[in-house]
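Problem 12. The chain below contains 448 residues. Write out its predicted structure in token notation.
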Amino acid sequence: MVRVKSFLAGGVILLTILGAASFTAAAHQGSGIVVDAQGNVFFQDSAARTIWKIDPQGKVTAHHDKLGGHWMALDAKGKFARVDLKLVEWLAPALIVADGGAPITVNSDGNLYYGLDVASTGQDHTDWAAVDRKYRPQVTAATTPEELFGILREMILPFHNAHTNINAASINRQYVGYKPVLEIGLKLQATSSLSIKEILDLFNQQAQRTRDIIESKYSDGRLRSYCNDMIHFGMLRNSIGYLRILGFDGYTKEGGFEQGATSLEAALDDIFKGAGQMNGLIIDVRVNTGGADPYCLAIASRLTHAKYLAYSKVTRDSLSGPLHFTAPQPAWVDVSTRPGYHGKVVLLIGPDTLSGGETFAMALMGRKPHVTFVGENTQGVFSDVFGHKLPNGWTFGLPNELYLTRAGKSFDGQGVPPDIRVPVYPKADLESGRDGALEKALEALGKR
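Solution.
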């Protein structure tokens, strides 16, 4: 195993090479990693302007790189190149600077070479050296694709993070991390052969089952459908508005962002045109697959009469050692001039509230009057998904951002907590056609 560590300003890279010797050397993060036909491993060190070479015996040598590239690739003749694999400058025989390629490769002997990227938020405090020691010996030249998938899945399974995923299309396997709390999470953890459509169908089935309960017992008639059936609205008893949001994308069949924004604004205009007659509003995101933050902020803007901070977003920019993030990027809830509601609001949340559904919850925390959260902790995933493609065509994704409150608190992992804790969709409720969390929300509005 080879591990290269750097404590330079640029950060730290861990380069794990299966089946090689061990050494330590100073190096900036080298994004490009390639292996030539002779089994030599090369990676880029842009800060030191060096291309490091590790031969099959583990000997390390350096080649000066006066242009200081970040990425490396091999052209068809086995030479390193920059930008579209066009040769630009010789550094030494068979060596020139490169900016193409990917930070992972497989040698002809089946060994896997990879660099740990600036990706996860580091909040899990995982001992990756221990993970490496456990799983590295399991990968050999004889490892089948199915076995490799199982190993990779097992490595990230403990996180139960819905923004970690492995997609092995060639063997029709896909893993999406998810907390095994409610029915959807338990099913996702029990299999790795569901397609994206089948995963979304789990959410759709739960959404339809719970909608049937609301329409049969709590609402005045059927709920009205908006935005390609992603938003529903109706009135409950005592003139309480009920707004149900299943996601923050897919608002039109075409799927375009601008078309979706137009559809959303039109829906909110219609929903809130009678807001003056409401004695309270319940917003339900207990089944919500997330989506675009701007849509979340657009809805929040209809609920306030004063601008406030929704949250701030930071991105990890350190590879290891002490965590370091970019400067906070604030997101604000502006005041909309279109129809809205400024009275009492209760938000229903739970473990199947994820991603954009959770950032929406955060966007309501600074609202006045206070929005009461009822239910259970949300899923605990907020970041955009940082995706990579492997040489065999497989892809994987993981988070690398944190969303912070005004006080600098992150809910990553633990999820947004409720003010009033009540079970979300327990089996007894579903079987009896009851919604105990909705009843608690009505109670919180003083209208039960």
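Discussion. The chain has two domains: 1-116, 196-314+325-383+406-444. Students who got a different answer should revisit the alignment rule from Section 12.3.
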